[in-house]
Amino acid sequence: MTKSLGPSLPPDLQAALSQSDLASRVDRALPLVTLDAGTRPHPMLCSYLEVLAADAATIRLAIGGTGGSAQNLEQREVATLIIV
User: Fold this and answer.
1) Contact (CB, 8 A) for 50 and 8
2) Residue 12 has what pLDDT?
3) Distance from CA of residue 17 to its chain's centroid?
4) What would the mean pLDDT of 23-29 be, rounded to a whole number?
5) What is the pLDDT of residues 43-54, one digit of tens each?
6) Alpha-helix residue ranges (DSSP H) falling in 1-84
């Protein structure tokens, strides 16, 4: 069941995405799903090196600028980052 965490990250999740302990997360990935032109899901995997919680309200992603996910984000400005 999906659960909204509200407009800001809880402290434990912000810490997990802060890149302060990359050594323990280097072998893990987080799915990021964008929508393509036909509104079909377009999944990709992000490593913890590509995700950064800059603060409780800002998550920054580093993805290739010419890939499908980057194009989808530019055109539709929506994505879902899945954290389990």
Assistant:
1) no
2) 94
3) 10
4) 94
5) 999 999 999 999
6) 11-16, 68-76
**What was the pLDDT predicted at 2?**
74
pLDDT of 35 strictly over 90: yes
Give which of 12, 29, 40, 23 is closest to 81, Cα–Cα: 29
In angstroms, how far is the first alpha carbon of the chain from the final one? 11
Torsion from C-alpha of 28, 74, 68, 26, nearest 10 degrees:
-10
Q: What gap in Å lies between CA 36 and CA 73, rounded to an integer?
A: 9
Structure tokens at 71: 């194009």
**CA atoms within a 13 Å half-sphere pointing along the CA-CB vector of 66:** 0
Tokens of 62: 């580093």
Query: Cα(42)–Cα(73) distance, rounded to whole angstroms?
Result: 11
Cβ pair 42, 24 in contact under 8 A: no
Distance (Å, rounded) from C-alpha 3 to C-alpha 36?
Answer: 24
